[in-house]
UniProtKB/TrEMBL annotation, chains A, B:
GO MF annotations, alphabetized: ATP binding; histidine-tRNA ligase activity
Main localisation: cytoplasm
Alphabetical list of InterPro entries matching this protein: aa-tRNA-synth_II, aa-tRNA-synth_II/BPL/LPL, Anticodon-bd, Anticodon-bd_dom_sf, His-tRNA-ligase, HisRS-like_core, HisRS/HisZ, HisRS_anticodon
Family, per entry: Belongs to the class-II aminoacyl-tRNA synthetase family.
Catalysed transformations (reactions): tRNA(His) + L-histidine + ATP = L-histidyl-tRNA(His) + AMP + diphosphate + H(+)
Name recorded for this polypeptide: Histidine--tRNA ligase
Length: 443, 443
């Protein structure tokens, strides 16, 4: 006998968790498709050299890698961005540009397990490859906003920045070489405050106190996007890169307003650097007003060259990744997750053991009207069947014994309101029953 | 520079293949939910001892296995049935019975690659666990039928048998010990014919010529289900097991008829044994009338005890597996696969470079009406944009330059009919435009 168990850091999804998860994934697909993004899929396993050295030392260390039966070094994908780069480099001639794809698939990382972190999780990415147009930056923002509202969130903020603003400032301060350590220090600002950040910038990045002050002056810009955009030129000076970044930010906020995104859901945050050397243009992070501590639930941005390790072609792109499992945990915490344990609203009791055919016909009739229906498989006691129906969360139970069936009747029971009505029903004339079910479902 | 490539036996799914694949998966989910089946998910990786020895020597040999960074022996799942058994044994107290689940997920097998066979493929399973009722056998059949018609197939046959009929015959002939070699020979009947099958049965299974003749007499029963069911008692004799099997087959055909399954789509085929020692009751195989050679596209049956290796509890079940990738290949061959390369029907040309906001507003308006719309990201030449729209297969293009926008007009172009009309449009009064798009999409 083998003990049934999952691997450490892995989890099973039972129906009560998988039903809302599947529904959220379907919502995401619907949003992506609304903007003309197309689905793709790539293998879980890749040649090891395709995966290593593409993320960070950490992702290399966390990689699930092995030698397959054919002696090949292989690895399980740790994100969907590296496979996208490989995919685009391999197929771009056939795909054409702009290439807009979404990809929902599991990824694997051998992380140290901690609360809410798993070694297998669902990634939900979308990217537009092959254009540098600000229209794609704006579209990315619109999709993030649409994803959040379509999933049922109202109180959230999308933080926006453009890496060119920071890059421009560092150019002017002659700190381009120290970009990485400067940004790494800057990322700690929300946690350790201005003074400690300035000190660390001097010690770790080797900048002067004056330079640190100027970098931190940028991060201190606050207010509405218009106010910040008005302050920036004074902080940045005449850096061409920064001016271009400021202009793109202006276009981004104007475009979002034109497409109807409420201004209060957007925040210009010139201190976020996200991903350090990865992003080159706009950057997005999304925070829930009611659960800011869980971190960004949808992040992304623009990168200059996706495929540089696989191809000489230059392909810019912009996109983002939805933290699906994190969002589902948040929905549960905020109690906006519907507690459904069934996928069909109607339960049909198998009441009279000799009339299975009649119940099968009844179930087929309800389903033909576009309403999901589950028929209990055994003619057990009605009380036991209704207990099952209650525990699964069905909305409606249809109950008919031999007498009712013979007399052309069926009881329609609202399992939530605990009310019931008797309705005329024969297989030839099911209309009244279907109407009664629809009425009850709509109430 | 690393050459972008996939592993041997693995494949990328480009949008033109992934769009219909995703749509078929969604159709399958819709069908499963219509019968009250719930989604679950399990990890791609399992403890090695959970996976080995559960399938065949072949699946053991094909297993992707390795030692993870924590020194654990792990394997990638090769089907969804073994993980279901582990899952049910682990969670049955919480799940309760009947437990009806569906599971769509990739599985991995290091098979020798050949035409159309991949080392990673999508499984699409549904099972009802915890009841022996014939109502569940019937429901399994209904779902197979519903899956096939919902996916667009009309010409197919579901072959049905019940292993109890064969088992009963073998009991009467005192051949229970030789069940496996007898069935293995019987499985070759369609390929090598009666005489050679009889000869092999004698040599490989050690049965007498008379016993072989009686087994083959069973396989020779032909006609409508009623005709075969009438012939069977004479062939089988008075085996209790066989009589029970015959009765369940009668109930199955009666139930299918009651639920409205056309009789011509069902075939009672008492020679199919499928899976040898795995199934214990009803067996299903589904063949396309127009492509019989691709083999069964949806197969399954009833098994006595799913969880025996993980738990002492006895849990019978019945279910089937849809061969999604095989069916998609068939749909392509039969030309019933829609050639769509876009997920949104409407293309919006970015015509006047200074009016991005107006196009963003237009796109938002179309999407708010529930119609997917893609905005071209760059103000390139109109000809180039329309060429892109054509190549992607959009249905409709919206074209408006600065003049049209100023005058409150927009051109609606039917890219398939090559016709166009000018429609009044302003962001404040978009109704006429939306109506024109809906009309064109419906035509």
């Amino acid at each position: 006998m083998i003990t049934p168990r999952t691997l450490k850091g892995f989890r099973d999804y039972l129906p009560e968790v998988m039903i809302p998860r599947e529904s959220a994934m379907q919502t995401a697909r619907t949003v992506f498709r609304r903007y003309g993004f197309c689905p793709i899929d790539t293998p879980a396993l890749e040649h090891l050299d395709v995966l290593t050295g593409k993320g960070s030392d950490e992702t290399d260390r966390q990689l699930y890698r092995f030698v397959d039966n054919g002696g090949r070094d292989v690895g399980m994908r740790f994100d969907l961005t590296v496979p996208l780069a490989r995919f685009v480099a391999q197929h771009i001639g056939k795909l054409g540009t702009p290439f807009k794809r979404y990809h929902l698939a599991p990824v694997w990382r051998g992380e140290n397990t901690q609360a809410g972190r798993y070694r297998e999780f669902m990634q939900c990415d979308f990217d537009c490859v092959g254009t540098q147009s600000v229209a794609s930056d704006i579209e990315t923002l619109l999709i993030i906003h649409d994803l959040m509202t379509s999933l049922g969130f109202e109180r959230f903020k999308i933080h926006i920045n453009n890496r060119q603003v920071l890059t421009g400032l560092l150019e002017r301060l002659d700190l381009v070489e120290q970009t990485l350590p400067v940004l790494r220090s800057l990322d700690k600002l929300p946690k350790i405050g201005v003074e400690k950040t300035a000190a660390e910038m001097c010690s770790a990045a080797g900048v002067t106190p004056d330079q640190a002050e100027q970098v931190l002056k940028l991060a201190a810009c606050e207010g509405t996007p218009e106010e910040i955009l008005a302050q920036l030129p004074a902080v940045i000076g005449d850096s061409e890169t920064a001016v271009a970044g400021i202009e793109r930010l202006q276009q981004l906020f104007a475009g979002a307003a034109a497409a109807g995104v409420p201004a209060e859901r957007l925040k210009l945050d010139v201190s976020i650097a996200r991903g350090l050397d990865y992003y080159t243009g706009v950057i997005f992070e999304t925070f829930l007003d009611d659960l800011p501590k869980i971190g960004s639930v949808c992040s992304g941005g623009r990168y200059d060259n996706l495929v540089s390790t696989y191809s000489k072609q230059s392909l810019p792109g912009v996109g983002a990744s939805l933290g699906l499992d994190r969002l589902l945990a948040a929905m549960e915490q905020l109690k906006i997750l519907p507690a459904v344990r069934t996928t069909a609203p109607v339960f049909i009791a198998y009441f009279d053991g000799d009339r299975l055919d009649a119940y099968l016909r009844l179930a087929a009739t309800v389903r033909a009207a576009g309403i999901g229906a589950e028929l209990y498989p055994e003619p057990k006691r009605l009380g036991q069947q209704l207990k099952y129906a209650d525990s699964r969360g069905f909305r409606i139970a249809l109950i008919a014994g031999g007498t009712e069936l013979a007399e052309g009747r069926c009881q329609v029971k609202d399992l939530q309101a605990k009310s019931a009505e008797d309705v005329a029903y024969t297989p030839e004339q099911p209309e009244q029953l279907i109407q009664a079910i629809k009425r009850m479902l709509a109430s």
